[in-house]
Amino acid sequence: MSPAAAKKKRPSLPAAKSLAQFSLAMEARYGEERVADELPAVIVPTGSAGLDKALRVGGWQLGRVYEIVGPPDSGKTTLMIASMVSFRRVFPDRAVCYINMEGTFSARRALAMGLDCSKEAKAAGTWLPLLPEHSEDVSDMARDVVQSGFASVVVVDSIGAMESKKVLFEKDAEEDTVGRNAGIITKMNKALATLARMKQCTVLLVNQPRANLSGYGGDISAGPKHMRHVTTAKVDMSGRGGEEDVRKIKYADDENPTVISHAVVARVTRAKNAVSGGSAKFYVNKEETEDFGPAGIDWADEYLTLGHRAGAVKIGGAWYTFPDGTKANGKIAAGRHLREHPETLEAVRASLGFEAPLPELPEGDDELCRQHRPPQRWAACTRSTWPGSTPGASPRAAGTSGRTRETAATATTPRSRSPGTGSPPWERATRSPWR
Questions:
Q1: pLDDT tens, position by position, 204-220
Q2: Mean pLDDT computed over 241-264
Q3: What are the structural domain ranges in the chain?
Q4: Which of 163, 220, 253, 394 yields a CA-CA distance of 20 to 30 A from 377?
């Protein structure tokens, strides 16, 4: 075919004015929020600096769904509590919800980690614990909470513990119910993926590994295969119990040293808003001690390690030198210094250089991700807010102990809104927690 003939066969392109009119018509029909660019990425720290780095963007992205998989005693619940503390400090006017299907949540440990799950918090609506009986309850509760827009994060613990009402209470011995529970979870996940984006609420799905009945490969995560399509990232967690992976303290009245903390490894095996493959190793403290800090994730130890890799913390012999020139003799003293001086912690975190989140890209196409990675780095430390104090105040000035958790902002500049439309949830980030 000649070039002239091919040119005649080309369809006529609409004029620029017609395109603009069509865009306005779509906005009028479906709403401005549904005919727009992607919402600004708001990143909330996970509570583990190492996992923030492994996720590459600095934490959980608001409005996304994540899957956290691991066997018992791998730190999943501890990570979820630390994440809820972060969301409460970033969004003090929104609730955090914990759907406790397993029935193993410990309010005492959560309080020790800084999560306000008191009766007063529940009455105020900022703490929303739910106890479902079956999969249908989990699905309905999760969708209702996310759709309300009142919660900044919803934790479902766990997918592996979910079972349908038919199987638990109504099934006869000879009745076939294969696939019923998987269907409920699939429908729930499809709904949550859309609602989370619309209401700017992060959903954290806790899961357990199960045997691979096909006989090929190792264990796989419980639940339907559809979970990989609705989740932004998957974090595989595993505990470490070797002699080099536990920390002990010898008390005066004990014959043998007491294990205070153990190491946990978290691997990002799947990610859509960043390149997957990152991993983190951190310690989980069973109780509060003077040497290793409060119960939960030992974030001070993480920042010492990550800060040294980034060049912000210098190590010479037993001495640790921080960006402001302050020195501490020994790792325990250095960790104590970070817990007591939030301004030093901010400087260390600023050196980590988190990446800006990538647009949604095909799963597993890491080469395409690298080609589309923005050249700028993700600034992750702009201010800190201590509970019960003014922004930037030290824990001692606020009348709190040196173990009070540090916070910092990690939200991008929100998109402008038309006058009179109100303030959407993603524009209400007033404080940010990172340890």
A1: 999 988 766 666 655 66
A2: 89
A3: 65-231, 238-411
A4: 394
